[in-house]
Amino acid sequence: MISISSARFARRRFGRTLRRLVLLKRTRAERRCWRLISHWLSGAILGAFVRGNLIGVAGFYVSPARRSQHRGHIFTVYVRENGRGKGFGDRLIKELLAHAEARVEQVHLEVLLEATAAIRTYKRNGFEVYGTDPCAVRIGDVTYDKYLMVRKFSH
Description:
By secondary structure, the protein is an alpha+beta fold.
């Protein structure tokens, strides 16, 4: 089962308090931080559950930069090891794409080159590699490259 949380709870629970804080904030950096928080709260975080236990998660947000709001981003796609190969990743991506299509013209994501199963999932869902980010991640002394992938919608 896939559940969608668009951070509505957080907006209802903390929105008024955050708006009050914004009125007190005067620096440019603080105003920028508030805009970024607002964009994050307008995104979507999905969870895949089996018998009430969270087995997978994936998130989406629209680019906060005014000139890039035609672009969305998928982030933190993760399926627990015991749920892999069972279609949870595909379902999470399909649900995020359905959510994104009404909001943006294209969706971007990054994935480690070593994550071959994830890359196959993204390609099955219409993503294409458009570049490589060399040495994008460093763990200890080892660096890893990432593919940059995009899925364009035909509006």
